Amino acid sequence: MEHLTLPKLSFLQFYAFEATLALTFFFCITDPSSAARLEPQAKGSDTDFVKTSCKVTMYPDICYQSLSAYASTIQTNPRELANTALSVSLNSAQSTSTLVLKLSKEHGLTRGEAAAIADCVETMSDSVDELQRSMAEMKDLKGPEFQMKMSNIQTWVSAALTNEDTCMDGIEAKAVNGKMKDSIRSSIARVAHLTSNALAFINRLSY
After folding, report:
1. Burial degree of 180 (CB within 10 A; 0-12, 13-18, 19+)
2. What is the distance between the alpha carbons of residues 144 and 155, in angstroms, rounded to a whole number?
3. Are 66 and 86 in contact, with CB atoms under 8 Å apart?
4. What are the angstrom distances between the C-alpha of 187 and each of 25, 55, 95, 100, 101?
5. What is the pTM of this model?
6. How many other CB atoms sit within 10 Å of the CB of residue 25?
7. 109: how many CB neighbours lie within 10 A of its CB?
8. CA 148 to CA 157: how far, in whole Å?
9. What is the SS3 assignment for the chain?
10. What angle do CA 132, 166, 110 make, to 5 degrees?
11. Span 139-164, average pLDDT
12. What is the C-alpha separation between 34 and 123, in angstroms, rounded?
C-alpha cells in the first residue's frame, strides 16, 4: 500500500496555516450568511398566526409590529402569545416609568406640571407592579385554580391599563409644556396600546 507523503511545513508556514483556520472559523460564526443566528428565525406560518391573532385587538398594527419578532417563540400557541404580549407591555411600562421619573426631576417645572408628573410617576409605578404580578401568575396556569388565577391576571392588567389612562388624563388636563407633554403622551399611548392588546389575548385564554 502506498502512503501519501505530506509536504513538510516550516514553523512560519504552519503558523500561517493555523491562523487561516482560526480566521475562517471566526468569520463563519460571526457572518449571518454562513452560520445560524442565535435568535430563532420566524417562519411564515408563525408570523401568519401573529398577524391573524392581532386582528382581534384594538390596535392590530402596533400588535403585529411589537410581536412579529417573537413569532418563532409564539408559534401557534395562544398562551405563549398572551405571555409574550404581556412581557412586551411590561418592558414598555418600565421604560415609560423611567422616563416619567426622569422628567419629574427637571428644573423649572410649574406647580401644575410638577403635580401632574408626580401623579404619573406614582400611577406608572403601580402599572409596572401590576404587570409584574401578572407575569408571575402567568407562569403557572395549570390545575384547579386556573380560573382564579386568570381572574387575578385580568384584574391586574385592567388596573395597569387604568393607571396608564389616568397618567395620560392628568398630563392632558394640566398645563404641562408642549415638548414634555408630547414626550410623555407618546410613551404612555404606546404602553397603553400594548397593555390593551395583551389584555385582549389574556381574555381569550379564559374562554
Report:
1. middle
2. 19
3. no
4. 43, 23, 9, 9, 13
5. 0.76
6. 11
7. 18
8. 14
9. CCCCCCCCCCHHHHHHHHHHHHHHHHHHHHCCCCCCCCCCCCCHHHHHHHHHHHCCCCCHHHHHHHHHHHHHHHCCCHHHHHHHHHHHHHHHHHHHHHHHHHHCCCCCCCHHHHHHHHHHHHHHHHHHHHHHHHHHHHCCCCCCCHHHHHHHHHHHHHHHHHHHHHHHHHHHHCCCCHHHHHHHHHHHHHHHHHHHHHHHHHHHHCC
10. 115
11. 92
12. 48
Mean pLDDT of the chain: 81
Q: Are 130 and 160 in contact (CB under 8 A)?
A: yes
Q: pLDDT of 33-74, one tens digit each?
A: 333 232 444 555 679 999 999 999 999 999 999 999 999 999
**All cell numbers assigned to 52:** 391573524
Residue 104 grid coordinates: 419629574
